[in-house]
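Anyone else keep sequences and structure tokens together like this?

Example one:
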Amino acid sequence: NVLSAFSAKLFKSTQARASLREVSVVLPHSWDTDSLTCSLTSPITISAVDTPAHIRVSSNHPVFGARPWTQQSQGCGKSGDYIQLGGNLLCGTTNESYHQAASQLLGEWAKFRWGVFDERGYEKDPLFPATFRDPSSNEPRPTSCLEKDKPFCLPNDHVPQAPTKHNAQCGGRAAWDIIFQSQDFHGDRNLSSNKTDAMIPTIHFVQAGPPSIVLVVEDTAVMNIQRRWEFVRKAVRRTVVYDMPDGAYVGVVVFNSVARTATALAKIDSDSDIRQRIGSSLPRNPSQIPESHKCLLCGFQEALRALDSQASDATGATVIFVTTGISSTPQRELDEMTHLATVRQIRIEAIVYPFMEHIDSTYVNKGLESLVSATRGSVFTVMDEGVGNDSKLSMMVALMDSFLGAVRHSTSSSSKIPLLVHNKEYPGGIVSMAKGTFTLDDSFGSDLRFFIYYADLGHVGNTIDLIMPSGKKVTSASMQEDGDANVIYIKVPDAERGEWVYQIENRADSHQGLIMQATSSESTARQISLKVWTNTKSMVTGGHEPSIPIIIYAEVMDGEVPVINARVVAKLIHLHINTEGSKYKPVYIDLYDNGFGDPDITGGDGIYSRYIPQMIGLSGQYELSVMVDNNNGLSNKPISNVITRNSLKLYEGNEKRMCCGSIIAYEYVTPLKNFQRFETYGVLSIVSQTLKDTMPPNRILDLKVSVNLLTSLVTLRWTAPGNDYDWGKANHYEAYLSESWDQAKALAGEIISGMPIPVTAGTEQSVEIFVNKYDQILYVAIRAIDESCNKGGVSNVAELWMPKPPTTIPPTTTTSTPQPTSLLIESISSDITQPVRVDGLDIEELALIIGAAAGFLLIIAILATLCLINVVRRHRYQQKKENNGVEGNRNKRIKTNSSLKIEQDNSSASVDSAVKNVVVVPTLPSWSASKLLQEHEKRFSTTSGPLMDAQLAGFPYQNMQQDPYPDVTLTGNNSDPNSETNSVAQSDPPAYQPSYTSDSYQRYPYDYQTNNTHEDLPPYTPQGPSSQNSQASTEYTRELDSHPSIIQYSQDSPVYSNSLPSYPSDESGFVQPVQLPPMYEGYNDISHKQLVKHTKMPPPIAPKPNVSICSAILTASDPTRRNVTQV
């Protein structure tokens, strides 16, 4: 009912040009359909077709609930990945519920089929708000123009200025323009029809059957070289015996100039003799027919005959070719194979073995690649590696892994295909122990298999230890040897979770080695899945018309929900030999789910993407593989929120549950435990026709505008693009402020000056501009240009509105006759009066303000008077107390020079007579300058004595201006306690706590001022805690000049190369990226002069003080002495 209603609405909205004709409903293989046949309109058929579903019926989404939503990973005009909806949406029982569900499905179908996006806004979305200012009325309005039964705005109602996701991705074009330019309608295809029966689709119910796979192996003379044919036989055996899922139908065909069936299609079960028979069915020796005589079409036709021999329908089967791919296949044969594969819905996977290319060859087998691409298959490549007459072990294992990847692509995700847990190669040459570890987490099943691959059985010594996480050793009874696959394997049916340890005695030759692998099935509790694809399989750079750049996509899911904040790394291997005769180093690429718009469309959808870097001068084929893990515990997955848990009506319009803005706003997430997945995608072809840089910066699609009404400043924010799409950094920006949307889109209008220098791609940038155009809608657009003058696309056009600032209202004047009744009222009309206003205020308001101000001033005056009286009283009391003190201390003396005179009233008198008229200070003990400074440094040294408070230890130098001992009076000339002349007292000086304010306190690191550069300072060796004070460190003492300069402290910082990012391999031989800054690549362009550095050098220390007491008083005017150790 829902599909019929949906077809009718599709027929109406497309003006009778499209409707559903046929629908296949695929039921899970695990369902028992015997009880369902009575309620279905047609019988269930069994099919092996494993095509991606257009619409997926699943459990409710954590945010969207049962409402349908479309996953779109590519840009405007590109088909989406799939539509997903909750099963509850199809459980309605009324016509109203059917039509509501059909209306929701209609809009998502347009996005999925024709590559359009939503023409509505979203609450709290930073890029696509729910409202905007209408350019025709200058008034706010909702960001939507949708009508009932219309999934998108009509062409006449479309507003290109609206900040919608569709306008940003499609450059303001109407959605219906994109739809009618698609392949379904372009060139007057599918014209309007009056047939009403076209609205009723035919529905077929199909249940997924077991996979059917035919291995088609080339048997020509090229396989006679070295151990190529031996490795083919061993790889086929391992694939059939160990990797094929139970219940699959498998057959083997060999071909050269003709083709024949080596083993008919047969069903294989667990540990059956059929696995052994099929795995050993290849001839022991290859033929002598030249490779140029091979017939690829003959092998494909023989595979179809093997599939036809099966009792059930073999539609949707998989054919895996193993061929050298050297000789080109005639186009006639390729066209015939493509036609047969399309009719039978056959998937073709190709393994190019061995891949024999010359140095930096630009050869690309276009025929084989086009055939595989047309049938949704992939190409795997195995490099030809050998020494003399011997082929390397790595070549055999690579062929086995290619078979495993092709089988995984050919079967559904529910099949128990082994997952790679660990992979590492140990070179030979010296007898040693190959030691390693791997982790089996709960994302894998409990059936662990550990493999030891060897080129010769004698390369494996007698010691083979596999230790469980609990410390127990796996017994030798669990080990098995398969000489037909050159492997010793250990099967652990109920493996422990945790870290496993192994050590194997390695006796391999110098040109060989041992390879360790661990595999397991997928966990039934946690289904972590990794899917990899690209927008295209080939790219041409440097031509007059460069092709579409390759974008890598990786979808990471935990069951039916996306995995957020995972670490996803792609690895590209150049499948050629460099000029030095060795392999190229892999290139590692971090993928991101950030929702910046180019290339990642929506943030938080579990799709990680990125452009591949420009391979200047490196034409050829590249093998792509991807690794994902839980990002050191930072990854998580969304869980259902309150809305989706409650039983709300499924058909009411709820904007919060619509998909999808710039980012999916999950309300609840939960962290994920450890997991790791590997996936081999296949081969990409890159042809570079020039050494010039032809890749422009990527588009800026997250330009945002914020307005400060007080300062009339407008802040622009965006994510920096790169030099080559999202790699590196651009050279400069072009930004325009326009009065119309069309001008901004064409980058016309007023040029915005003062734009910042671009930074590394993925970093947010901002700039403030002054706008003095008020009460009108303005538009801003920006683009980046690289150093080769390659111009990026125009950004999304951002809208801004600057209201006119308020002005002062002048005094109101009147021309009417004054009214005698009141002086406070002026006549507005004959019957309306209004208070007189001055500068916008009436008389009553002014009186109130003046009264409040006068009262406030009166309070201030009273408080000031009271304070003055209190000060005078305290002063009188203090003076009286001091006078009493003078009378009581006449017996105490003041030591002075005998020649001292006091001049007063133009007369001279002796000291004795002067004492009578002055305040006498009590005699206090005195100390010498050296004793005083020693005690001061002893008490406040950072290496001895009690430590100062942490807050007091960091005070700035300029605050040390007051007398260090303000309460002490020093008398006499002979104050040295060690001198022969006795002073008044020789007791220790009191402790001093400097008084200062924390306002001038600066957190470390701060710039310390001195004229001496760090090169002039003596060498420094860090030492432990010392009991010596600062005076003992004479070798680190230095005089400082009065005019300071900056000392820079160096810091050992990581140096990022300007080349492509690469990371060290982990034990699996894949990649373990180094934790880089938040986005994209290392900040290799940051000058080291801009980094704070930590060069270990001694701070300068003040010299030993002089005898004069003035040297003990530190002032800002005398910076020649400073204890920097305390600073």
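And example two:
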Amino acid sequence: MEADYGIRIQQEGMLTVPSNNAYNFGKGDFTITVLFQTTVGGTIISRKPAEGGTGNGGWWLILRPNGVIQMNTDDGFGYYKAVSEPTIALDGTWHSVAAVRQNGNISIFFDGISIQVTPESSKPTPLDVSNSHRVVIGYGDQQQLQFVGILEDVSIWNRALNQAEIKRTMFNKVTPEDPGLVGFWEMNRDFDDTSPTNNPATPIGPVSWVPVFHCVWAETVNAYSYCAIDLHENAVTDYGAKIYDHGMIIIPPNPAYNFDKGDFTVTALFKTTAGGMIISRKPAEGGSGNGGWWLHLRPNGVIQMNTDDGFGYYKAVSEPTIALDGKWHSVAGVRQNGNISIFFDGISIPVTPESSKPTPLDISNSHRVVIGYGDQQQLQFVGILEDVSIWNRALDRGDIQRTRFNEVSPSDPGLVGFWQMDRNFDDASPIHNNGSASGSVKFVEVAHQAERQQTLKIESGTGYLYGVVTDKSKSGVSFPEDALVKVFRPDGTQLNQDSNTDELFVQMNGNSVWAFAVKNPQVGDWKFAIECPTSIPVLLSLQTTPTGDVPQTIGNTLQELYGEVPAAHTRVFLARGKREALALFSWSWSDIGKWAGITLAAVGAVVGGAAVAAGAAIASPVVLGASAAVAVGSWITNVALVNEVSSGSLQVADKMGIGKPTFGGSGQGSFHFIIDGEAYFPILRDLLLAVRAGHYSASGISIPDNPNFENLIEGINKAGKKAYVIMWDTSEIQHMMENNDFLKFHLRRWLNGKDARRNAQTIEALKGLQNVEVRLQIYHAYRWWKPGVPEGYGSILALNSQHQKIAIVSVNDVKCALVGGFNIITPAYFDDPSHPMHDHSNFHAWHDCAVLLQGPVVDIVEKEFDRRWGQTATNAATVKEGTYAKIACWQINHDSCLDEQEACKSQPSKIPYQDRTTSDPKYPVDVLITNSEFSEPVAQVQNKLLDRIQAAQDYIYFENFTFHDVSLIKSIISKLKSASGNFRCIILIPHPTKGNDHEDQRGQFYLCRMALAAMLLSTSEWTNAAFKHGDTVTREQCQSWKVNIPEDKPVEYATFDYTLKSDGSSRSLPLTDVVNVVPIDNGRLIFTSPVRYFESLNPNEDKFQLPGLNKNFRSIYVHSKVAIFDDQYALIGSANFSARSLKFDGECSVGVNNPTKAREIREQLFSHWGVNTPQNWWTIMTQFADSPPIKGGVGVVPLSIQTLNSTPPIWAWDYITAVVDPSDLL
């Protein structure tokens, strides 16, 4: 659903619609409808000229000052009208009105209900209302009664609507195809008529757009009342330039701005509380050629426009205005025939001229234009500006209105400058004179304030009234930042403080109500007021418990409101750590009001959140009573059992059909490729130091003693800056198995409270830092199911992890982001390109890669961090500061050195600080996410890889510690069937050792053996294959062969099926039995491993040696996750090439789509391994394996399938890594 807006009409404001025969109803039926919000009333809509007589009939709909609604018809000689009783139409809340003439009788519907009217007339009805006059919205040509308030969805029909049709006009259900629709002005930031008549309106006077909360409500049988007030996520995104002290925007000189003594206009939209110079073109010097002009706001709200010829001035000075009230306004300064007019919010306001010379003055010069400052007056503007325009003619009132409503076109006559400030300083006029920022200027999203007041009638006998407000962009039941909700009883008293009694539950968030539940609520009209910025997608959901027939009452009501009923669902909900809380239940959305948003279950999540935050037992009698009344008591109980509110609220949101966030996206950004920890960790160090210092410049920044992670974060804290750290809440069972900590883990915690998990220790180390927030995030996969197993949050949730490794820093709103594979664990990850293997306990090196991003794409990475942050608590604050650090990592050692180890051992750093910002070119960058927490899985990394495999023409390169995702395997097999002989698919993974691989790595090798074999045996790229039990076969012996991988099964279910030429016999061998497959020389499939060759080593270190290779080779461990395609696309991040990473774990990778950058990355990485092109990889790796350099070094060698582990791993490995099909573990 699109964003909703209305038009605010003030004194002297109106919309006019040209005359059209479609509105000539004669003596026939017709209908007028409108939505409105006002406290003073007036003429809503009219079509009646001031004159009487033949051809001057008409009609009008007005609100009288006492709330009476009146519909008049007139034939130019007499009238017939319907007058209602007083209503609450002027209470400042939103209402609907419809006036219907049918067979001459006039009915009035108020909020969808036909109300009593009294007819008054001077002539019998029906009267002929046809004329050739305009339609006026917000005013009346005859009555001249000004409407002041907000209008939207104004419609005209050439027939009488019934009550059901009128209700459709109340809830955004009108379509252009509806029969009889002849006028429909929705006011969604335009004045278009979306009816078939297509007759747009024109604004006159002070009218302006206001964002409108969409609202649906019902007051129906069984004392059931329902209301949902909704500000949509896809509100129009607009930007402005926020100018701080010492900031300005500079426009180069251009003769197009030399108006001499002629006419010109300058306009701008602004928001400020301090005023200052809006725009100027006047040098500081006087004299010949130094004339100019400027437009500025004085501190008292006076608006002043000056002209100057270098020897004297002529200016216009207004009376004080409300320009400095911190709200959005428009201003225009116009010189016409020497006279200066000032328009404020579209209205020409009185001005007083002052001068030292007669007008017009010659204002031409060769000087720059300055926005937000003045070279002569030097009056600093502090606030936000957008849509600044300059014209070489005098605009009239209509033209100025268009500048206020985003209706300026580059082709408009006289336009010589137009800076929209939409995240750039480009000039959209034909002059194309782009500006640039100087000093403190940044782009900000323009978020106007939206507000709505709504009443809901509560009948006698109502058992419970409850409601909650939530941020729809968050994946849990989170309070929307900067929202303000007020709840008033019918007697005027307000729910404004926390309460939890048998009769009342109220949870406040600051001054706002967050959630509430009332038992036996007061009878009458409850009033709800909500306001918030348009940048926050908000939903306020309210309803009562029906007195009977609960499912039918709710279901029928909401079906009428929303039009369709989703199918009922069955869900499994497992409260984390509470197996006894597992409850299987069935519900449809009619049971708990799903379709509109959060209802009582969400209130329950807020109740649980309040209790958990306070360390108290979860109990709210009124909420539990209400839940019992609508048969969701067990659901609320389950929410209450969740020991981390974030998990419960996330699952509530998913079940309710809201709160599913958007993932990833694409944007422009620089893309700096990083190889190995020696490069990565100093970059992270320097970014954190920049946050601490408040600037990126090297001036004044030195490397502190012991620059480890904990100390750098503490430095940010001491500097008064903010840091936010989020880590995966490692499952206890994984920690115990991974670290062989079964016996002591719980005993240690019981004796001294110590949690041995790495991330828990980091939380403990950073505890107490006032400006630092550190959180653990539990990650629950959702769709673990197979036939016969209920869909939902399965019983093996601990298998999956939040595996992302991202960091975002902002220094004075200049942002950088790191995305890659590095965990903050040193020294293991602090490796250099020579891979010296200083760790002589296993001789493993940890090769990894990452990317440093700058530009708009960083906002997309930050959005992913903020999404996760919002899941860690029921209410998670959003960062507002301009300088901060955000770090999300799978695991962090708090004492990890972000420098060479010696620098953290009292030695000075050898790596000086560097400003890590760059002016590198910007490229198209994808931010790709894997996420399985919701009922709709997100597999963007996998999808991108599959797309790129099929699009590749020259080569594919994968680099990772594993490779066995079945979708990638199948895609490569498919690609090889059509690829040319010069095509290369290179897969680089670590080389197995003779006895030093960890259990999890042996498990990866076990699956990689089948994956690599499946790809070879599906092509002609092999010579012979060997299986267990002595089975061998050559390709030449086979008449036909193929690998059969069952649908929806991983590679270990595959079989190798072949038929022999000799006797036509067929065999089918399980791929789990494959021992070896020998590839052809220099084929299209290349399996390879990185190694280091040592000149001399201890010959007794057998377990470190690599099978089938020279004893002096040592395996380089590959932790990177890199894929490159055709020197066109490169992908780097946290996602491994396994089913777990591409379908289930939380991952973030980034891809750059540019041949220059992709080739640069490929050359940088290939050079790292001693290779130059994909086509000569095979030759170079075989040479390096056969004839390594005498003095040693880094290179690549062939990876033989027979060296990969051929026995299944132990069950513990299955549990830790979850690389087999998850359904097998249910």
